[in-house]
Amino acid sequence: MDFSNHNFSQIIAFINQIRLISDKNDEEFNLLLKELIVKKSIDQQFKKELTDFCYLTLDHAFFVNAFTEYGINSNRGFFPEIARRLKHKILPSNLPENELSHFINFLFNTSDDFVWLEKINYSSWEAITDLIDVKQLSLHSQKLAHQIHNAIIILCHRLASIGIDPYLVSKLPEIDDSNSPFFELNHQVSLFVKKHLENKTLDIDHEELESIWQSIAKVESLFNSIQEKKDEIGTSLHSAYLLQRAQQHICRIRLLLNLFVTKQKTNRVLTISQLVTELVKAEQTKNRVRRFIKETTNLLAHRIVSHTSEKGEHYIGFSKKENYTLFKSAMGGGVVVVLLVYIKHFIHHLHAPLFIEGFLFGLNYSAGFVFMYLAHLTLATKQPAMTAAFIADSIDSGNDSGNRPWTMFKQVIRSQFVSLIGNLVIVLPLCFYQHG
Q1: Are residues 285 and 347 in the same domain?
Q2: Taking the complete model, does pTM exceed 0.85, yes or no?
């Protein structure tokens, strides 16, 4: 898009002024921003430029790609996505002149502008939108309404394709049924959006809209169930990437549907501000490799930690009764360990070839630890491997409670000590008896 025929110097100057105060904390930043907006509210030239830029964007920008791709993982997969980002760092993609990214980069041409955009509160967003002359907005937004419709339909189709991905179907065959919520959501949204696009005077059917929200919730719960069934279906980088992509589609569908149906100014300003911030952030981070790897691997790590923390919780006593149970479990673990040592001693005296002896040693210990796991017995030396993830998860979820981490540490230390004593109570007497 060629902006040389238009004069938007005051908008550029306004954004430069915002950058100068962007290092302030959120509260101070918004106070200073509000002062800037108040000054601009009496500047008719600035208000005209802002209105002209908004109408120019609405009339000429192509939004469908932005709504369906910006900030959403591609269907290429994890490693191909990294390769794409590396390639476009060297050779930027060739985009059409009406692509929304040209309009975004014209205003927000500094790579970290999304940081201060995320700090703007609702009051400041409302004040900015009040500077725009909306008298002719309905005329200029007709094209946008059609593009929102297309984007919602595309996102629903893509969400359905994620839902019936062969990898996910192999884990949960029921999601490929004819009554799948993915197909139901696709059908409901298509009918709803098309009906209201063809007849703009039609009132929103709140029962129909509520049914769509429920269908979205069903789809989301299906993906959540995949995460909860880690014991049965496991986890991987590919599944983490797919689930992250699905969640991104669900969030964007919700956002665009809100924009499509919202009539109240408050909700509309909130939706627009969130959408603008998301699109600018996505455009400015679209080729950042380290950020992409960090986000995806963090999601995978979170799934692994949450899975292990659920197991680790069983090795911590939160009451006297639970500590007594843990003590008995540790005594059982001590018995098994002593038996493993006796068996190992017996295997050694067979004087078998080294390979056979090593194989029997390994088989002995593996059988012993599997038995301890199945019998819910405890070995103090292996306990930290399970409780470490629980500690990490507790600290992460207990940020709003100053006492919880300290209480949790006391429980872990106490449980570890109980397990150690339980093991030693059995191991020491039996070892000394054998020695005697």
Answers
A1: no
A2: no
